[in-house]
Amino acid sequence: DAETTAVLLHIYDVSNDLTVQWINTVLAHRYSPVKLGGIFHVGVEVHGREWWFGACPHGTGVSWNRPRQQDQHHFRETVEMPHTMLSKEGIASVLTTMMTEYSGRSYHLLRRNCCHFADDLCTRLGIGGVPGWVGRLACIGSNALSGIGNLEERVGILQLSRSVLSLPPSQRAAAAITVGGDRQGGARALVTVMPMEPDGSRNQQPL
């Protein structure tokens, strides 16, 4: 038989906020046969490295860490994906290409986030996309904004993923913004941008 490589999808509650953990438990309990969605950060583990995508001011937004070690988020569960038939060289080629395509400045809270990256990576590994519930809330939010027209330009809601790029690394923690807020109160969106290393670099060691 041809050699295959295991692929694991690690799912986190965005940030370590207890409210986010509660929402995700209600909508996507790890033992529930039906999951509706949630506010998630996800990473894809292959060959002992967990790959993920986030915002940064320069270069690629793709980075990696040791599996299940995203300290800025609360680990929720691991989904075992099908094994990939690609060789180690083939996997490295896919990741190298995606590091070029996924720049840090191209990150978008709803339309191009870590869930989209994970889905794209798994697809290119030849194992199909991630479970639909993983990115469902982001998809719903994106579709809602598209239906409202130019709300994004008028309110500037999704510019958060770019505005945080000017913050010092130590301040790139969970941030909340008001979406179309008014004096009666508006909906809120939560986004987390992973901090860079203390020297301002990202974990982009060779594949």
Q: From N to C, what is the helix and strand string?
A: EHEEEEHHHHHEE
Number of strands: 7
- Number of helical segments with 4 or more residues: 6
Radius of gyration: 17 Å
Description:
With 207 residues, the protein is an alpha+beta fold. It is 28% helix and 22% strand. It is built from 6 helices and 7 strands. A 5-stranded antiparallel sheet has the order 4-3-2-1-5. Strands 6-7 form a two-stranded antiparallel sheet.
What's this model, at a glance?
By secondary structure, the protein is an alpha+beta fold. The chain has helices spanning 18-27, 88-101, 114-124, 136-148, 151-155, 160-163, and strands spanning 5-13, 40-46, 49-53, 62-65, 74-84, 175-179, 187-191.
Which short descriptors sum up this protein?
207 residues; 28% helix; alpha+beta; two-stranded antiparallel ribbon; single chain
